[in-house]
Amino acid sequence: MKRLKITFLWSSCFLMSMSVWASEGVLDTTFHSPDGYVLWDGGSGYDRGRDIALQQDGKILVTGYMTNGTDNDLMVIRFNRDGTLDAGFGTNGAYIYDGGHGNDGSYAIAVQSDNKILVAGDSLNSTDDDVIVLRLDSDGTLDPNFGSNGIFTFDSGNDSAMDLLIQSAYDMCFELLTESFWINWDLPLASLRDWPYCEDKESFALEDEVGNVQVEHQVADDWLCERIDPVVAIAWQGSYIGYGYEPSECNHDEEPNRPDYFMLSLRRPTDIQANDGNPGELVWEYPAYDYDEVLVGYDLNPEGEPNEPVFCYSVRLPDEERFQQEYLNQKYWFSVVAVYKARLDEIQYPWGWTSRSNTFGSTALSVTDDDSVPELLYDKTGKPVDMSFMFFTEPQ
C-alpha cells in the first residue's frame, strides 16, 4: 500500500504542476496516469499554487493565484484522488475570486472537520493590501454564514495573511491568561507589558540521570472549579528569567535552555492551610513533554532594552490523562514546574511563571527546595497576585 506524499512544485511555463511520490521516493504514475503529476492552466498567463490541503476523502485542494490578463485573482482548485480535476467543485473544478481592485491571492488553505474550506491571503483595495479570509462550502461556493457572504477582510494599512490555523472548539473556563490590552493571540509580537506585577516567578526543577527530580522553586495558585467537565487542555505563560531579546537586532543573548518537560499538577486543600506549607493532597499530575511554546509579548525592562520575552505554553491532554473535575465549587491548587535534565549551573536563564493581578482567592505561593514556609507572592505595590493560566473543556 502506497503512502501518498503530496509535493508542490512552483509554476513554470505559465502552468501549475503537482506531483505525487510513493513512499519509496519514486514518482507514482498511478496519479494522473501515466504522468505522476498534473498541470493546470488558467489560460491567461502565470498561475501559481502556494499551499495544498488534503480532504478526509482524499481529494486534493490547491490555492494560490491565477492571472486574468490584467491582474491576479485568488484561486482554489480541487483534484480527485487520481489527479483528475474535480468538475463538481466551483466552476469546472475551480473557485476564482476577483476583488475588482487589483491583485488578489492566497497563501494558505485548511479544511475544517465539517469539510468546509478556509482560505487566507491578501486582496488589493485599490490603495493597499487587506487581509482576506474566505470560507467555501465543500462544493466550492462561498459559505454565506461566514463573515460577509463568505468573506472576511481586515485593513490596518498594508496587510496580508501568510498562514491560518483552525482551532478546536473548546470552551474556555476559569482564570484568564492576562489583561487584553497587551496580549493578542493573533500577533506573535504583541507589545510591551508594563505593570507593577509583571515579574515572573521561578518555578523549575532538575532531573538527574536516574530520574530523581529535585524541585528548586515551585509556584502554585488556587483555582475554583465551577463545572464538572473534564479538563482536556491547559495553557499558561512564562519567561526565561534574565533573558533579553530585541527584534531585528543581530546580536542577542545566548538562547535559553528550553525545559525538557513541564510537570503540571493539581492538589486538593486539606485542613492545613496552604500558607502553612501544605498546598494539599495531590489529585492529578501530568508530565507535559509534548508542549507548544509561542512568543506572545515582552515584559518591559525598566533599565531599557533588551526586554524580556514572554511565551505562551499549551498542551492538549491525552484522553487517559484528562483531569475529571469532581465537585462544583471545589478549590484546587494548580502548579506548573519546568523540569530540566541538567545541572543547576547549566541553567543560565531559569524558567519563571508569569503573574497577573489577583482575581480569586488567596495570593499565589512559592515553595523552595529547603522545605521552608511558602512565600506569599505580591506585586511591587504589595498587592496579591495570581498566576497566568487557562483550562479548557470540551463543549457539550
Description:
- The chain is elongated and about 75 Å long.
- The two termini are 38 Å apart.
- Strands 12, 13, 14, 17, 20, 21, 22, 24 and 29 form a 9-stranded mixed β-sheet that branches. Strands 15, 16, 18, 19, 23, 26 and 27 form a 7-stranded mixed β-sheet that branches.
- β4 and β5 form a beta hairpin.
- It is built from no helices and 29 strands.
- By secondary structure, it is mainly β.
- The protein folds into 2 domains: 150 residues, no CATH class; 223 residues, no CATH class.
- Can you write the helix and strand succession as a string? EEEEEEEEEEEEEEEEEEEEEEEEEEEEE
Shape: elongated
Biggest sheet details: 9 strands, mixed
How many structurally independent domains? 2
Look at the structure and give the mean pLDDT: 78
Give the N-terminus to C-terminus distance in angstroms: 38 Å
Number of strand elements: 29
Which blocks of ≥5 consecutive residues have pLDDT under 50?
Answer: 1-15, 169-192, 272-277
Count of helix runs: 0
Using only CA atoms, what is the Rg?
Answer: 26 Å
**Portion of residues within helices:** under 10%
Content of β-strand: 35-45%
Structural class: mainly beta
List keywords for this structure.
single chain, 396 residues, mainly beta, 2 domains, nine-stranded mixed sheet, seven-stranded mixed sheet, 29 strands, disordered N terminus
Layout: helices, strands, pairs:
Blueprint: E1 5-12, E2 15-21, E3 37-40, E4 47-54, E5 60-67, E6 72-79, E7 94-97, E8 104-111, E9 117-124, E10 129-136, E11 151-154, E12 171-173, E13 192-193, E14 201-202, E15 204-207, E16 213-224, E17 230-240, E18 261-268, E19 281-288, E20 292-299, E21 308-316, E22 323-324, E23 331-340, E24 351-353, E25 355-357, E26 365-368, E27 375-376, E28 385-387, E29 389-393
Parallel strand pairs: 13-20, 15-23
Antiparallel strand pairs: 1-2, 2-3, 4-5, 5-6, 6-7, 8-9, 9-10, 10-11, 12-29, 14-24, 15-16, 16-23, 16-26, 17-21, 17-22, 17-24, 17-29, 18-19, 18-23, 20-21, 25-28, 26-27
